[in-house]
Amino acid sequence: MPPKGHEKTVRRSVPGLSSLPRPVYGRTESLPNRALTRRHSHPWVQLSYAISGVLEIQTSVGRFVAPPQRAVWIPAGVPHRVFSSPHTEMRSLYLDCSVTAWAAERCQVLEVSSLLRELIRSFSELPVEYTEDGPDGRLAQVVLDQLAAAPQVDLMLPLPHDVRLRQIYRSLNLHPEQHTTLGDWSGKLGVSEKTLSRLFLSDTGLTFRAWRQRLRLLSALPALEQGERVTDVALGCGYESTSAFINAFRQQFDSTPGEFFR
């Protein structure tokens, strides 16, 4: 979801916290425009979550995408950039490492249940220095319990590291609708198609076809969340028909676009 076309992009500042006021700290922010932050890291865990809009967290490993039913878990010390679609309402959590000993030490996308969504929403309304040994502190603990139980979902696009594959990624990321084949790229980059195919599999764990399909589908999420017509989104992502797009979407997300955002 990097900046595209003529949409206005706002540089968003990184929160200037030297330490957390509480082991579980909630931060709210309204972002009317497409926004991004520079690459940075925190000495604490971050749960990047939005009740509306679509977030994308980019690390050296990949792009982690989170529509409202999902959130991105970012371990302490991991450099990352944050992209957000227009009209994003963030309800992020910052978590001291002392309360997340159970957590994975890698970025991942988590499923946000209806219960967890309402817990985060309620927690974000608490005062910054809430009373830890009262009801507010117990609410924070319930949030942690629900986060520990939240299942991981596959909304991540692995990024290639090979310089030739990076050229392909940059081009398709800006224009996912293009139909350039791996054979076409072979001629442009002066390397055999077989070599490019092998590099994609070893560098990303996916075939070029599967990787490009995932890139297209993840790129479609912000427009779908904004309520754009499925047909327009499908064509804008390079699909020749709405039915082909819906079939690919169902294969990736186990639901149609309408079911996914409902």
Alpha-beta classification:
alpha+beta
Could you give the order of the helices and strands? EEEEEEEEEEHHEEHHHHHHH
CATH-level-4 superfamily name of the largest domain: Regulatory protein AraC
Write out the strand line-up for the largest beta sheet, numbering strands in chain order. Answer: 1-3-8-5-6-12
- The rough form would be described as globular
Can you name the CATH architecture of the largest domain? Sandwich
In whole angstroms, how far apart are the ends?
A: 21 Å
The average pLDDT is 91
What's the helical proportion of residues? 25-40%
Which value, in Å, is the CA radius of gyration?
19 Å
DSSP helical segment count: 9
Level-1 CATH class name of the largest domain: Mainly Beta
Strand content: 15-25%
* E-strand count: 12
The CATH topology of the largest domain is Jelly Rolls
| Unreliable sequence segments | 1-6
The major β-sheet equals: 6 strands, mixed
* Tally of discrete structural domains: 2
